[in-house]
Amino acid sequence: MKSAPILVMIPARMASTRLPNKPLADIAGLPMIVHVMNRAQEADVGQVVVATDSPEVHTAIQDHGGRAVMTRDDHQSGSDRIWEALNSFDPEGNVDTIVNVQGDLPTIDKQSIRASLLPLTDKEVDLSTLATEIVDDEERTNPNVVKLIGTSVTENVQRALYFTRATAPWGDGPLYHHIGLYAWRRSALEKFVSLPPSPLEKREKLEQLRALEAGMRIDAALVDTVPLGVDTPADLERARAVLTQQRNHHAQP
Asked: Which pTM was predicted?
């Protein structure tokens, strides 16, 4: 019996400039957004709902047995989209915790989704996320790899002090790659979407800094792998190779 209602929400929009119609891109015979939905359902932490501005995505989800909620097409962020969808899907406020799984993570594993909820067992934590230790030297200096600067709470949880595209912190020791999957308390999400974009958020182009600048506490569970985010045609080909291999493996007698 789950102690509090949890809802997994997957924002999906069609207006990607680098990869048009991204949510519906075919990967091993299924639209990408359906793969993400399937991974979220495998995590078995709560009901899964896709939040989209696209009738085509809505139809694709329904055709594959899922649930989708239509939202406006002018949202500035996925957090704004899931807040609208949450209030449409659950206007009575029964859901206490919302796991926001990005719609372009078709290889996300169920253990990572479950791990995102671990930090919320501490009542002081407003929202939680994921990170993994960087092992590839190129990632240490890559501005597209967002780094978590944190302090250890437990062996597997870090309290976030900052997020940056720079190589940080300085000196010897591990660096952590932030994974953009979030678990929100409903009250924290409501507060977050009411706030204007913050100065550091706009400077680093990292939405989570808005929460830190507003004094909200973010803890990150440490996981072993980074899911493949699909932003470019090359990413899409990698995802196709990974998931086709998995499908073929499972099909073997």
From this structure: 0.93
